[in-house]
Amino acid sequence: MGSPGGRSAVVIACWYTANVGVLLLNKYILSVYGFRFPVFMTLCHMCMCSVLSAAAREFKIVPKQFIRTRRHYAKVAVLAVTFALSVLGGNVSLRYIPVSFNQALGATTPFFTAIFAYLMLRKKETTATYMTLIPVVGGIAVATWGEPSFNFIGFCACLVGVCCRALKSVLQGWLLTPAGEKEAEKMSNSNENKLDSMSLLYYMSPVAIVTLGICTFIMEPDAISAFYDAAEMNPPFIAILLGNCFVAYLVNLTNFLVTAHVGALSLQVLGNAKGVVCTIVSIMLFRNPVTFRSVAGYTITMVGVWLYSSSKRRSARLQVIENANKNLASKV
């Protein structure tokens, strides 16, 4: 089966390939191919995720986990709507802006996560962590000012997606791990609040499909007829769209596998590098124009994200040490 290090390297390579692949395929279908229905395309992604996540559970590729209460499912449903909107915002933006700019804006997620965590949970970070967010936002300001392919609609759509992604991460911690509730202690042995990412995707997909179906009906009423026309005029289009949907599912599956192999903290670092890889590959393939100012802005933002991740890891280690010291003191 190979060494653990070798398996981890293969999983990470697959994760990178899936992430880069879905971004480039989305951009190709929306802009180059000319199928300008990002909401419908996101709906197709979620349908594929629902089918394949169910298959993964049945064939025991991922462990089976269950939701046992209506209240817990209601929490997952809230997450599903937020998740659907985050993916939707990113896909809509690709219709108007290049992948490189999309990825640079996506790197500001930690900034909005910190804001939502403070507003909703009153969770404060260290001063050093907040300081690292300055280059994250400053770099985007520089990149936006120097972006030759700037589009206001695409910018706003991507920003909505980024905000929803940040909100989802805060909600996930808030809704699925209700520490402090009396019944949380009673559920500690039932795994009710411990869904892994793939089980979460399985339960979120149906709600996301309904949400995106409504959005498609309102925002893109001609999407289905356009899909039939595209399939009739160019039969390979169906294969391209199905391939795109399959790769979208692989992003979630490989994300789960990478987390299992290297841990969540290492995933953050790899995610930062992934944004750089996606940006470089998209510029090489789509030849979208870039200026020195926009490249400088992207670089400042990526450095800020790296500093933010380092600060968060340092804070996490200090928190573990502090808790261990408190436990030792209480036993003395």
Keywords summarizing the entry:
332 residues; mainly alpha; 0% strand
Topology:
Elements lengths: L3 H29 L5 H21 L11 H24 L5 H8 L2 H13 L5 H19 L6 H25 L5 H5 L10 H23 L3 H11 L2 H27 L1 H23 L5 H40 L1
Helix pairs in contact: 1-11, 1-12, 2-3, 2-9, 2-11, 3-7, 3-9, 4-12, 5-7, 6-13, 11-12, 12-13
Pfam families: TPT
Keywords: Membrane, Pyruvate, Transmembrane, Transmembrane helix
Subcellular location: Membrane
Give an account of the 3D structure:
With 332 residues, the chain is mainly α. The protein has one domain (4-331). 81% of the residues lie in helices and 0% in strands. It has 13 helices and no strands. It has helices spanning 4-32, 38-58, 70-93, 99-106, 109-121, 127-145, 152-176, 182-186, 197-219, 223-233, 236-262, 264-286, 292-331. The longest helix is centred in the C-terminal third of the chain and has 40 residues, at 292-331. It is globular and about 75 Å long.
Question: Which secondary-structure class do the elements indicate?
Answer: mainly alpha
Largest sheet: none
Oligomer state equals single chain
Q: For the record, give the distance between the C-alpha atoms at the N and C termini, rounded to a whole number.
A: 47 Å
Our count of helices gives 13
Low-confidence stretches: 178-192
Number of beta strands: 0
How helix-rich are the residues, as a percent range? over 70%
Protein name: DMT family transporter: phosphate/phosphoenolpyruvate
Domain Sugar phosphate transporter: 9-309
Keywords: Membrane, Pyruvate, Transmembrane, Transmembrane helix
InterPro entries: EmrE-like, Sugar_P_trans_dom, TPT_transporter
